[in-house]
Amino acid sequence: MNARLVPFALAFALIPFAASAADAPTPVAAPTTAPAPSAVESAFLAKIMRDLPRRYPNPAAASKAGYVRYSNEDATGAISFANTKAWNTTDPDVPAQLWYDVNGRLVGADFSVRRDPNASPAPAAPSLFGIDPKRFGTVRAHVHYVTCDAMKKCSYGKAVATTKYAAIGDVEHPTAEGLVKAGAVKDAATVSAVFLYPAIYDVSVWVVPNPLGQFAEKNPAVVPSPHAGKGEDDPM
């Protein structure tokens, strides 16, 4: 029934019920199960679930291999590290991104292909490593940076819009000095990392077993810490 057509008397009678309903907790949607993998996808998953934990068993190994932490722990329990040389992922052993939980356990990875956000018509999603193109999402470009104070306490999850940075410098090669000019930071010396996170097609994959499927958005087997939340700022 259209609520605007409810007679006044009936609407008045429903007020106590409406108030109690408003006080009720909002139901939480059940996590979505990912579509079952194909034979080719299953072979890819078996490889990365076996090999990536051996190559990058902890954040120190990731850092040694050229990955840079840029995010806080997100709502799924993942802390992201990016390899800026692998945005166009060509090797399953070198993902664009790795995720660790707060205990330093490798839990997932991202594989990506750069895209032109201004292309018309938009190019089709890739079929990287035999992964179904429908599994790929898109991510907008932005400039990420990390700052650290004199006590080496670092702040993550910071970003500035590419349009804002492009007004003062080369967005493909952002610098700490450029962040100062863009008004993102006050002191270039506090910037420990800055890089372009380009516009990409991206697929996220859990490396640890997931009862909802390795391509699912969430993993009940990965329990976020009490401090988990938004992993990074949205500069848009």
Characterize the structure shown.
By secondary structure, this protein is α+β, with helices and mostly antiparallel strands. The chain has a domain at 39-141 and 198-206. Helices cover 21% and strands 22% of the residues. It contains six helices and nine strands; from the N terminus they run ααααβββββββααββ. The chain has helices spanning 8-13, 15-23, 39-55, 59-64, 162-166, 176-181; strands at 68-69, 79-82, 97-100, 106-114, 137-139, 142-148, 154-161, 191-197, 200-206. The protein has a six-stranded antiparallel β-sheet. The chain starts with 7 loop residues before the first helix and ends in a 30-residue tail after the last strand. The model is unreliable at 1-22 (pLDDT under 50).
SSE blueprint:
Layout: H1 8-13, H2 15-23, H3 39-55, H4 59-64, E1 68-69, E2 79-82, E3 97-100, E4 106-114, E5 137-139, E6 142-148, E7 154-161, H5 162-166, H6 176-181, E8 191-197, E9 200-206
Antiparallel strand pairs: 1-2, 2-3, 3-4, 4-9, 5-9, 6-7, 6-8
Short structural description:
This protein has 236 residues and is of the alpha+beta class.
What descriptive keywords fit this protein?
236 residues, single chain, 6-stranded antiparallel sheet, 3-stranded antiparallel sheet
The helix content is 10-25%
Reported for the largest beta sheet, the result is: 6 strands, antiparallel
SSE order: HHHHEEEEEEEHHEE
Strand residue content: 15-25%
Oligomeric status: single chain
**Order of strands in the sheet with the most strands?**
1-2-3-4-9-5
By secondary-structure content and strand pairing, the structural class works out as alpha+beta
SS element count, helices: 6
Note the gap between the termini: 39 Å
Give the overall shape, derived from the CA principal axes. globular
Output the radius of gyration.
22 Å
Record field, number of beta strands = 9
Task: Write down the overall mean pLDDT.
Answer: 89
Low-pLDDT runs:
1-22
